[in-house]
Amino acid sequence: MKRLLIILLLTSSAFATTTVAGKIQNLGTGNTTSGAFVRFWLRGCGGNQPRIRGTGLIGPSQGGVFFFDFTADGLGNISGTLHSTRDAAGTGTGDIECGGSYTAVWYGMQAFSAGKGGPEVPVHTKNGSTLNIANVTSITTNPVVTSPTGHSTYLRLDAGNSPVTGSVTFLSDVIAQAGANLIDVKTLNGSIQFADQFPGATADVQMNAAIAALPSTGGIVDARAYGATSQTIAGQVAIGAPNKIITLLLDARTGFNITATGNIVVFPIANGSSMECQRTDGPRNNVESIQAGATSVIKSIVAPADVTFFPIMILRGCSFLGISGSSVSSALVDLQALGLGSTIENVTVYNPFNTIGVLFHPSATSSMSDVNVWNLQSNGGAVAGARPCVIQGLGNTQQVSNIYFYGGGCQHAGSGQYEIEIDGLNGGVGPVAGVSSIQFYGTHLETFTGTLGIKLRDVNGFKMAGSMGFSGGGSTNAYTISESAANLTQGIEIAQCRCTSGSLAQYIVNTAAGGTTIANVSTAPFIQPEYTFKVPSLSTSFSEVSASPTPAGAGFDVCYADSTAHTTKCSDNNGSFFNRTLTIGTGTSTSNGTIINAGTSQAQPAITITGATTSDIATCTLNAAPVATWQTGIQLLPPVVTANTVTPWLSNPTAGNITPAATVIRCTVTR
What is the CATH number of the domain that holds 637? Predict the structure, then answer.
């Protein structure tokens, strides 16, 4: 029995406890006794179950919280013991374990009187010591959690043990950098790869490694972490592959300098893949570009990878720049053979030295059609050989059709070049034009000294809508229209606009079959007339002009409103223009019903027809079959037209008098 008592005593003495003592008083120097107590809240478990070392767990006090109350006696005194949160020195482990740690917890001490609590003071209870509630030292930092077993380096969520010394790698994909206050991630979930985290001396090597790390189904390569730096592209970066759709994300602040050679497409984009650069503002306002470096020899910066049959490509928010000395054999941006579903949006192209800025054209096996272009800005910068916007077909073989431009602009070609070139390249072979249905809405066009404006050749269907802006001087003509074979160029619609300056030689020069020259309006307010050429089915759509347009050709009926003659003129089946008959009005009156002597005529009651003039023509008829008294020789003479009035006349050419019965007469005035 003695031996058993000794063991129990040893176990009891092993508890790490702290004596709690003190007195609760009021401001009146008396003791607080009514409903007075001190509560010790257990803090720091973070939702874990607290346990007493080697003995058992602590039961909750109210639901999921843990506390213990010391009630004051009649003199305001409290006394008792608590489990310790620290050893006797105040630095080692205590008696309470939470989540595997014996240093995670502390107490929140709070005095209560009459059911009302005061402020909470964070305290530790030291093993074997006495905590006097009237004289406590509050702790000022959260306890340090013991390092997990098996790890010599760990990170505190509150950064209490930062800065971390050295680099810590997690699963080979996350790196915490010492002193940098950041965590670099190489991949997220496998389908997002961060290019800057891959090894490589140049950005293209890193991007290609990131692309290779994506699963076979594709994903995202995020290169935005390059930020406001300059990077080198020394080789090709293939964005995607068949059945592997990839999105390449770039930061608009990053400058990419291309040094590649070999006449390659630097960024070939596979069907369905995309390049997105966040925003565009050209090479200014802290926005950098992907530029063809001075030593580069390339075919284009970006183009579809496979042009076999209507590829889909998405290009959004990117800026491309040409540099003097670079060699670009196709175009900075080559949009060959794109089809429905492609998106070109907020793209900027600057300074295409001796090359094309943006090129729209088919391939040998695929036409190009049904593409919407939003806010494309191609600015030649007036540099040598710059051709900002070019649309080319392949004649009868493959065509470019249904391309719609919204906003943006094509500006400042090199001397002797066009700002916009649209050419079907039929080479004299018809009947299908190489380009059809090209439309511009709200596009800004600006010429420069020695530039040539807009070229249209072998184009069936071109529309420049009313919100078009056209400014600057120096070009020979605003529009130069031609064809390589008769009737290939037709369906041209150019809206009236307040545009151009007085320096153009002509507004429109059209040498296609039946074409004419339209003079430039060189004085303020510079309102150029609406122009249409061989536009079919205009019988219900009129253009008000002061001169007769050219007939559209065999099989076409064209009408226009002549603002000088104030009449409608039409050409039927390529014939000469003639006035269309206009009905001014119609009305009736009842004849006098009185005798008309032999060999005389008689005026009948006048009819009011508003708008009639003396030069108009009126015709009159009976409103019903003639009665018997009209069938003995009475004749209806041509009426007399005066201002707003028509007067019918009856004649009796016989040898005897006739009294025609009163009858309704109807008259119509035409012009």
Answer: 2.60.40
